[in-house]
């Protein structure tokens, strides 16, 4: 599950709770989507969202154990496809959220967990135990269309795309920052939290109109928005 809190500086903190791997099953995905929609409904001028988690993992991807617990292999595959479809609106909600978004990756972000992180505008992570990893090539799964569209939208380096998607490279904090996948890597959880909160306060202080911010964001990623079914609106507030 997750919680959503709002600070006095207009920053929403979405926290994946518990000390487990934060595997993305229907229950957790629904909880995240509900929290994002709540933040959107309460957004005002200058709102910001920070997503973080408790424990060793940011998110270790889809709950494959839940899928494999089905009564047959076809039903297990059906469960996996169901989770893929459920996560798509979460990505769409983040891409169209009327506020800047920051992922504070305090542990491993693997597969769908990395997709969740990449759906934010900014990513900060820990250098000591944070790892970014797309496991699909290793475990025998192809990528949904919105996964690859998100990677193409957010990762500009062909060599990074190759290494992460085709080699299953496990990218630690310093390398992720050096290769432009994340903004910065931090020594410990306290410094990560301080850095993301500082960035959140800086962004909130700009008092941007959320509807303008979200439309500019969507205009940056036309292919991704097409896959997600997001329209782009032209707005002028003069």
TrEMBL record:
Q: What is its EC number?
A: 5.3.3.8
Q: Which Pfam families match?
A: ECH_1
Reaction catalyzed: a (3E)-enoyl-CoA = a 4-saturated (2E)-enoyl-CoA; a (3Z)-enoyl-CoA = a 4-saturated (2E)-enoyl-CoA
What CDD domains does this protein's entry cite? crotonase-like (cd06558)
Sorted alphabetically, the keyword list is: Lipid metabolism
Is Lipid metabolism there in the keyword field? Answer: yes
Output the PANTHER family linked to this UniProt entry.
ENOYL-COA HYDRATASE-RELATED (PTHR11941), ENOYL-COA HYDRATASE_ISOMERASE FAMILY PROTEIN (PTHR11941:SF75)
Q: Which protein, by its recorded name, is this?
A: Delta(3)-Delta(2)-enoyl-CoA isomerase
């Amino acid at each position: 599950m997750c919680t959503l809190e709002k600070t006095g500086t207009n920053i929403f903190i979405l926290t994946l709770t518990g000390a487990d791997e934060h595997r993305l099953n229907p229950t957790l995905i629904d909880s995240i989507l509900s929290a994002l929609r709540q933040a959107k409904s309460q957004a005002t001028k200058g709102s910001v969202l920070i997503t973080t988690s408790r424990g060793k993992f940011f998110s270790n991807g889809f709950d494959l154990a839940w899928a494999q617990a089905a009564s047959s292999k076809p039903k297990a595959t059906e469960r996996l496809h169901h989770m893929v479809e459920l996560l798509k609106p979460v990505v769409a909600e983040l891409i169209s959220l009327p506020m800047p978004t920051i992922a504070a990756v305090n542990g491993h972000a693997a597969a769908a967990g990395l997709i969740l992180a990449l759906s934010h505008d900014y990513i900060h992570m820990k250098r000591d135990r944070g790892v970014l990893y797309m496991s699909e090539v290793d475990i025998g799964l192809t990528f949904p269309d919105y996964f690859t569209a998100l990677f193409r939208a957010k990762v500009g380096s062909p060599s990074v795309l190759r290494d992460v998607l085709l080699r299953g490279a496990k990218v630690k904090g310093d390398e992720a920052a050096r290769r432009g996948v994340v903004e910065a890597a931090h020594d410990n959880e306290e410094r990560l939290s301080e850095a993301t909160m500082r960035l959140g306060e800086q962004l909130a202080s700009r008092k941007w109109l959320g509807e303008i911010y979200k439309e500019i964001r969507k205009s940056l990623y036309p292919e991704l928005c097409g896959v997600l079914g997001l329209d782009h609106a032209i707005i002028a507030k003069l």
